[in-house]
Structure formats: C-alpha cells, structure tokens
C-alpha cells in the first residue's frame, strides 16, 4: 500500500519536463494518472493521456470530464502546462502578452473550473500549481513571464482561501531553473549553449540546475494526504536562489 493508492490525478503539460516527471512519480507511488497535453502521443503506459489545449475551454472541459469518467473520479489536479517569454515590457507586443497569460494563467483557471465539481467529491482533494521563482524574484528580461507567474501565485492563495472549507487544498511550487526540454530549447537558441549553461549553473547557489524529478517530488508532497494541513503554500525548489 502506497500513499497514492486509489487516488486519481490529472497533470496538465504532463508530456514533457516537470509535468512528465510528476505524472511518472505519482503513478510510481500508486496513483492513477491522466496527462492532458497538446502532445499526448508521446506519453507511455501506465499513464493515460488525452489531448487538451488549456487555452480552449471546450477542449479542457471535454478532456477533464472524459478523464474523470475513465478513472472513476478525480482527487489531484496538477496545473503545470506553461510557456516562457523573454524580454522587457518593450520587447513583447500585446498579442504575445495575451498568448502567454492565456496559457499560464487562464489555462489554470479553465482546468480548475472543469475539475472542481469532481474534486468536491474526493476525500483527499488537492490542487498543485506550477509557479516559478519569477513570481517574486524580480528577474531581468522576464517581464511578461514574471507577471504571469505572479498571477499564478496570487491565484493559488485566493483559490486556497476559497476552497479550504470544501476540503480542497491549493498549493504551488516555485522552481528555479530546471533542466527540462524547455531550458534545452533556450540553450539551443543561445550563441554559445555551453557558456550559457555554465552561466545558468553559476547563478544557482548549489552550482547546478534543479532536476525535474526534484520539482516532481515537491509537487507530489503537496498533493499527498501527508500534506493535509498545508494549503496556500508556495514551496521553493530553486537551489537556494531566493533564500541565499
Ligand atoms: P516543457 O516545455 O518541458 O513542458 C511543458 C509542457 O506543457 C509540454 O508538454 C507542452 O506540450 C505543454 N503545453 C504547452 N502549452 C500547452 C497548452 N496550451 N495546452 C496543453 N499543454 C500545453 O516545460 P517545463 O520546463 O517542464 O515547464 C513546465 C512548467 O514549469 C511551466 O508552467 C513552467 O512555467 C514551469 N517552470 C519551469 C521552469 C524551468 O526552468 N524549466 C522553472 C520554473 C517554472
């Protein structure tokens, strides 16, 4: 018997990086897991997978309802799908602002709205949002991304307050720089990827990037019945970037 036996989880953006590591960890610890992603075909068993675009309300509603029906309920929602954006306020036009906020903030709202009726029926309901240290760190060249994650942090606290009496806990993780395909793409676009990677590592007090598995472990903790007294918490997984 493991901690997640009998629990059913949904992980958005679970086909890659942090979401994939989280879906795999929850499944390894006994949960039944469905991944919602733009690219569900790359997800392997025992994970279930459905195509959903978090910017499309109908697609989210349909996928969440189908997943809850297939699994026989829903206990855990990991709102993880997200995209990046670089630059200052002068570098991104309105269209880019709308697109990133649509995925990173409204995407979580849509998935949560669709999941709440199912979560209310659970005895161990938990939502974990993937936020970022960008929410509070004041990082350069990340105006839009930071604003989107600042909204995720506020949303997490507001949702925690709104749903605590219904027995639904809402928390978030704040990762630092995590070694995922996303960061791989960023490095790939750099003039000197090796030097850029060394610079990212040097920025971390631990001297290395955070792993997706380390973020997954934090998400799994917050999602687990062991964290039953924690709601409205932002757990840093940032190699000491904010604390030191
Ligand atoms: P990733 O690019 O490896 O994975 C993101 C996943 O989200 C992909 O599978 C992608 O298909 C999916 N996705 C994107 N848009 C979607 C949409 N509209 N609908 C459904 N799925 C969609 O990225 P990652 O590094 O694993 O990032 C995951 C989360 O972690 C994001 O919310 C990101 O902001 C956050 N985060 C990442 C880092 C980092 O350094 N990698 C740091 C802090 C926070």
Q: Could you say what the CATH architecture is?
A: 3-Layer(aba) Sandwich
| CATH level 3 topology | Rossmann fold
* Major pleated sheet: 7 strands, parallel
Q: Which CATH class?
A: Alpha Beta
Based on Cα principal axes, name the global outline. Answer: globular
Number of domains: 1
Average pLDDT score? 96
Number of helical stretches of at least 4 residues: 8
Spell out the CATH superfamily.
Answer: NAD(P)-binding Rossmann-like Domain
Rg over C-alpha atoms, rounded to the nearest angstrom: 17 Å
Percent range of helical residues: 40-55%
Give start-end ranges of low-pLDDT stretches: none
Order of helices and strands: EHEEHEHEHHEEHHEHE
Physical arrangement of strands within the biggest beta sheet: 3-2-1-4-5-6-9
Task: Give the end-to-end Cα distance, rounded to a whole number of Å.
Answer: 39 Å
Class computed from helices, strands and strand pairing:
alpha/beta
Query: Which molecules are bound besides the chains?
Result: nicotinamide-adenine-dinucleotide
Family: Belongs to the short-chain dehydrogenases/reductases (SDR) family.
Protein name: SDR family oxidoreductase
Domain Ketoreductase: 7-181
Organism: Streptomyces mesophilus
Summarize the SSE layout with pairings.
Layout (H helix, E strand, L loop, with lengths): L7 E5 L4 H12 L3 E6 L10 E4 L5 H15 L4 E4 L14 H26 L5 E6 L3 H4 L5 H21 L4 E8 L2 E2 L1 H8 L4 H11 L6 E2 H12 L10 E4 L7
Parallel strand pairs: 1-2, 1-4, 2-3, 4-5, 5-6, 6-9, 7-8
This protein binds nicotinamide-adenine-dinucleotide.
